[in-house]
Design goal:
- This protein has 171 residues and is α+β, with helices and mostly antiparallel strands.
- 49% of the residues lie in helices and 31% in strands.
- A 6-stranded mixed beta sheet has the order 2-1-6-5-4-3.
Length: 171
Amino acid sequence: MNALLKHLNLLNLKIKLITILVFVVNLSFAQEQEEINQSLNQWHEAAANANAEKYFDLMTKDAVFVGSDADEVWSLKDFKAFAMPYFNNGKAWTFTPVSRNIYVNANNIAWFDEVLTSIHMGLCRGSGVVELVDHQWKIKHYVLSILVPNELVDQVNDKKKQHDTEYIKTP
């Protein structure tokens, strides 16, 4: 009987330790999600305020930015060259987050998707990968897409058919 009680006590202790471990891991992921959320908000705010230093500092040195046009796939260096005239004129772009999902990996990498709104592009989707670099979550890869309601796809495709054809023909 004593052996059975010892075994049950040991089993009970193991269950409590596992429960505590799961709680701590979930708390850690929640904290990381909030830190990522803050970094993404700061990134969008830096663009809205034309703060190039802050904006590009929130991207990794090997970051890639994929814009809404088919040929917009930029390294950080090329993206800076494209974007700096906008920042230097005091007006970059403003995207306001509507919703966001963040998925954290245990290896200092996370990915996200977000619905954004802007005056010049309407509803958009941003998605990407962030990496923890020197205790700061930074954008490693970002993709910006214009959202098209399903019921408008045929109309949009008709309007861009010529553009798409020319793009496909270009080597």
